[in-house]
Amino acid sequence: MNYETLIVEREGDVGLVKINRPDRLNALNFRILEELTSALKDVSQEDAIKVVIITGEGKAFVAGADIAEMRDMDSLEARTFSRQGQRVLDRIESMEKPVIAAINGFALGGGCELAMACDIRLASDQATLGQPEVNLGVIPGFAGTQRLARLIGEARAKELIFTGEIIDAQTACSYGLVNKVVPADGLLDEAMTLARKIATKGPLAVSFAKAVIHRGLQVDQGSGTALETDAFALCFASGQAREGMTAFLEKRKPEWGKSKTRDS
Prior knowledge:
Number of domains: 2
Helix content: 40-55%
CATH architecture of the largest domain: Alpha-Beta Complex
Oligomer: single chain
Order of helices and strands: EEHEEHHEEHEEHHEHEHHHH
Strand order of the largest sheet: 1-2-3-5-7-10
Strand content: 15-25%
Largest sheet: 6 strands, mixed
Structural class: alpha/beta
């Protein structure tokens, strides 16, 4: 599929989704959200893709939502925009495949929210992050108030959101907002290396781990451990546990595509 605001490519078993609106610092608008919905569906359904990387074209990851488009919205239009953005980011968070954010530059407002919906965040040493919406008289609308507090704690989230402060990548890393900071010219290579490493692991195991971690954070620990037990057992039902363990014992690399259940 051809996209107006995205570049979508596949490099082996890694899917690359690049926000491509550099003249507007990749600011999110209705069009990008619609195309992201389609792109995420496409990469989810492509069996050859095991891991997805999201990044931005130019000097921004995503500098925020499109202020020119938002300025004249009425309350109903603003609600629609917020819900659409939340649906797209929820799709990233709930996607079976791991998603890595390669934060190449500004990740502000909606851009920070997009990054937080990803499973792992790698940041360029030139990146900046923040939720500066209060400077515009609004609050984060793509679940930033919820994900930021869960990632870095209530107190720090309140400070960043109340002040609209923008922080550098190293500070973001110290807060736990990003996993790692790397030199700008090596960011995509680092993301690809990580993605390819994950892609060699048991695909169902990675998918189940993602789902259990995500769902477990929404419930009490006892309920979370019950989810873990169910997913652990399903790994054996799939046949991938048998293949992985057999490969380990035979000192070879597992062939996940050839795994079979015990009864097959």
